[in-house]
Each structure stands twice: as C-alpha cells, then as structure tokens.
Amino acid sequence: MSSRRSLIAIGDLTRDEITRMLDLAERFSEVMRRDIKKVPTLRGRTVINMFFEASTRTATSFELAGKRMSADVVNVKGSGSSVEKGETLKDTVLTLNAYQPDILVIRHKAAGACAAAARYTTAAVINAGDGKHEHPTQALLDLYTLRRATGALEGLHVAFVGDVLHSRVARSGAIALATMGARVTFVSPPTLLPRDAAEGLGVEVSTDIRDIADADVVYALRMQHERMGKGGFVPSLREYATQYGIGHHRLRPGQLVMHAGPMNRGVEITDDLADDPTALITTQVESGMVVRMAVMYDLLTESSAQRTPEAVAEAVAA
Amino acid sequence: MSARLVQRPGPAASLVIRGARILDPIAGIDRVGDLVVRDGVIGGDPAGLEEVDGTGLLVVPGFVDPHVHLRTPGREDTEDLASGSLSGAAGGFVAIAAMPNTQPPVDDAQDLVRLLELAERDAVIPVGFIAAITKGQEGSQLTEAAELAELGAVALSDDGRPVSDAAVFRRALQYQRLAGLPFTLHEEDMHLSGDGCMHEGPVSARLGVGGIPAVSEAIAVGRDVLLAHYEGARIHICHVSAKETIEEVRRGKAMGVRITAEVSPHHLLLIDEDCENLDAATRKMNPPLRGRADREALIEALIDGTLDCVATDHAPHGASEKELPFEEAPFGVTGLETAFAALHTHLVRTGRMPLELLIRRMSGDAARVLDMPEPTLADGATANLAVIDPDAVWRVGADGFRSKSSNSAFLGDELTGRVTMTIAGGQIAWRT
Asked: What ipTM was estimated for this complex?
C-alpha cells in the first residue's frame, strides 16, 4: 500500500534515475564541505530507521543523512523494541506507520522483508539490506564512488571477489553496474558462487583469482560467517585467504580496490591493503551519507518540477 | 480392510439435469442430454424430480484429490474438515485424502478414529485420512500400519518431509507386505535443500533467495525407485516438480516398479520467474516453482501418463504467517477451489490438452493412485459428479474462499470454467 516511490531493489531504477541520484549526491557533497553541514530540505519530514540486523555504516549514514537534511529521525532497533516480544514485522510496520512517517528505512535478515513491509505502510520504503537479497543504496554509493574515481561507469570492468553467494552487495552492485553499462565478473570459490549467476545476473563468472587481472576495480567481499549456518563452504579461512585473499601481491598498478565493510582483515583483504590510502574503502563510507541524502530527497520529490536545477539549488541552500 | 472415506450423513440428491453435455471419458460417455440422479444414484425415472437446466453446462465424474492438508487437529484456525471439504466441493471434488502432518501428526489408531468421527460430523464430501509412516513423522520408528490399515487409513505418508533414513524406509516398504497400504511420498534430500526457499537457478541467483536444487527431489525419488524395486513395494510420488524427477519416475515404470506420481496445478502453470514479487502467500511452496523447461516437461509427462494424475497439495496457512518476509513464511498454497478452472483455462482452452484427458487425470486416474473409488457417470453408480459452466469467467478470490485460508497460487487471476454443482457420495455438496 506504499503510496510513495520506494527503493526495494536496484533493478527498480532506470539508468537515468540512477544518474539523477548520483548527480544529486554531488550537490549534497558540496554541502558537506561547508562549515554548517545542514540544510532545511526535509524539515517537517519524518524518517524512521528500522534496523533488525546489525549495522554500523548503513545505520549511521542513514541517520546522519536524515538529520543533515533537517528531518526528524527516529531509530528503532530489533533489540530493545517490541520485536523482542515477538511482534511481527507487519505489526511493527503498522504501528510505526501510525506516526505517519515519510520514509521507512529497513534492514532485516530475511530476503523479502522490505517487499513485505511496503504492503503495510504509506511511507516510502528504503531497503537498507534484506538478507541475501539486495542492498540498493550500497550499490548507488559504490557507483558514486567509482564515478568520482574514474570519471565514467560505462565500459568499466569490476570484479567482485569472494563470497558472492551470501552477498547482497555483489547482487545489487552487479545489477547497478550492468544498468550503467559496466562489465562485471564474479571471481569466487566454486562453493560460494550462486548457480546460474551468469544467466540470472548477466555477469561473467570465474573461479580463478587470476581473472581479476583484467578488471579496473577489484571489489573484495566479506566472508559472511553469520549466514553460513553450519559452514563448510570453504575448507578453512586460511586456505580461502591463500587462494582468494586480495593484497598488493595480486594487484597491478592502477587497479582500484573496494570493500563494503566490515572487513575480515587477513581473510578477504590483507591488513596493509585495508589501510592503504589508495584503496577506495574510506571513500565508500564517506559517499554513503551523501548518496543516502540524495535517495531520500529523490523519493520524497513527487514531481519532476522539484528536480529542476533551480529546485535542487534551493534544496542544498543553507 | 479397505480405505474408509467418510462423509456427514445427509439427504440423498434427486434431480434431473436437462440438456447438458454428459462427459465421462472412462465410461465412454459423451452425449448431450439429460442425467438423472435419484436417491443419490445415477439413472432411473426422471418423473417428479427437480429439473435443473443444464444448457451449455458440462456434467463430468467428480474430481478426486489424493493430497490435501485439512490442518485438523491443531490448526483449525486455518482449515477444518467442514471448511476444507466445502472448499473441495466448490472445486468439483467428490473425494479427498488428507495428509497426516497435523499437530500432532496422525500416527496411531486413536488419532485416526477421532478424525473419522469428526469427518462423519463435518465433511460435506467423502474424506479419507492418510496416516504417518513413522511415529511423529520423525523418520525412525514405524507406525502401527496393520492396525491403521484395518481402521481404514487410505495410505501412509510423512508428507512435509521425506523418510531420510533409507534403512527405515526400506523396513517400511517391507512391512507393506503385511499392512498393504500404499506410500505417498514427499521426496527431498534435506541436506541438499538446506535452508532453500525457491528453485535454485537464475532467478534465485538474482534474488539472493536460497535455492532448492532440482536434484534434491530427483535423488530422493531415484533412491525410492530402487528400494521399491528391490522390495517389490508400491509407491506414489507426491507433487513432482522437476524434469529430472520425471526421468526417475519414467525409469521406475520401465523397470516394472509399481510407482505412480502426481503433479499440482501450480507446478503445471507457474515458474520461478513468478517469484520475483517475493510474495510468500501466493509463490512460496515446497517443492518450489521450477524453471520454464520443468513446467513444459511436467505438462508433457501429465499428457503421456508418466505423471498419473493431478493433486492440489491444498495447503492452507493463516494470513499472519504468510505475511512474513518470503524467507520466513511457511511453504504452501491452497488449490482445491481453483484446480479445474486454472488447468481448464491454461491447458485445455489453449489447446495443450484435451478436456477429456484433464477429466481423467483429475478424476479416475487420481482415485486409482491410492485405491480410492473411481467416480463414474454409469447407471447405477453412486452420484459423484461435478456440473461445470465451461464458459463462466471469474476472478479468483473476488467472492472469497470456502477454505478458511486465502493463500491461493492463483489469487486475483481471471479464470474460465466454474463448478456450479457438486454431488458427492450421492449428496448435493455444492450448488451456486
């Protein structure tokens, strides 16, 4: 019943819409360089962040993004809320919807949680990660980071390396990059590569780490122990690190490195690469906030008239 | 020692349907004319009977469903014997067999007798009960199958899960020589299925939803074909979903194994791509909706008889459970009220399958897999028939469901063909 536009899967956005959001994020990044990092754009709007699964970066950046646009931001966590008393997602959403929020930001451990939640709220729903399904704002901030670093996304070659099977970052990222005309390769242990990924996601797949050589960008994926149940997907983290861990020894000069965090240092990425200032990892974190500002602004902008350069200029005016 | 199908006692139907197409492919009847039902029996003198205008309508042998879930005992909030049997009647069914995965499971004489008594009070069409293969459906200790057979169990099944331990299942097959009951088998390798929620393939890769590989089903069927062959036992395979499984069933039949198999309307008509909306209420079931090639193979196999019959696997669930996120919601969709209309709309009217064959696969062929009585329009038979308006167009769910649950795979769809009357066990069980 969500009457506003929501962002549940990155595939919901066209290339033009993505470009529009990235452009908007550029404008908000100008705001972040000012002394006073706050604009009145969303004054009187209410954003509720519902994080039923752990998060540092995403939760913080959504909260800051809302506050820097002067929205009223409320945070609801799985622990400490009625969810602990067995309240269903539907009832939690219906309850919060009664406060007439404009945006519900939802993170949940189950795929399909945001699609389900959107049936019970009039607010715009932003998927902040639902199980292994999608993480569309991560994909947008990755595009933003890459566009800034390389100038253009068209024709760029990105290799996602590691635990693709459990990764919503890789899934949303691959779809977003394909939409923008980039080339994507999954390089993964055979046990962590989803069957039929090539057909389902239109990517190239490889189990040979040497196939990152051709990529402009090497995107290391976190080994997601918490989604592996009884485990056994790889013989050992030691062997994984040996076979697929990304470090300087595997990179050629000029190759860009990304990681969505949190990192398992010494597993999917070496310690010194993780701290290398040329890696884009910190930039990704910084991009998160302005991209989420752009997404919230865009979803609450009902008409194209409010997206004219003049309107946007007003939106970012202090 | 034969299966008991139990129905609430009621007045016997007496009426004459005028000018309908009377179609019973098994009895070799296809004529336009009158059909008399007098005192619940087909044929006789029409004088003085209520007349029903059958112009443009179809009268066929009623449908039989060897695989439904009536959620009694334990989850009567989602279905009970009254609502489930009425749901069947509304879909043209004249006999249904209920699976034992209730709360608690039907695994001893007392459970079975209580259900038979309940059915005698509540069921508007004849209902039979399948008992568990193992105590508590836990896969280790055999149920008292000889006693269950004497009391009238239709078959044995641990449906909802497989008998994973091959040695236990082998013993169950051996014991069939004493008890005589057919096994109706949910086939799945639980290790391969893992925490999967949908068919493993390109769509699950894109959606990031855990996949259930097709070979999970086929491997389990392959094992049981070999065991049934080795023990000379008789097995029926539930809800075949994958093309690989069809090959195993075909192999079993070629080997001379006494094996039959069923397929559900949703597997015949929907595919994994239909799961893109992540709507658990209408799209999450086990086995899952498979790929396009699987669906085509299922249709072919139903036509050529490798798959013997249609069964709905009618699986009601409460709205609050099905409103959960896709990965957290329970498996299952309802099917009794839509089975004929959905298959008629998408297989018969499109020319894929003759009407006569669909009637066979939903009626006599479906009865035979578990030795239930075959409905027939022959003179002297107990009236077990459905009257159908083949041109009626309706929207699924528009006027609710007779089932207590609304998790229909075809919710909101426009279908052509509707049951206007069902006479089951000689009684009028449904009439619009």
From this structure: 0.89
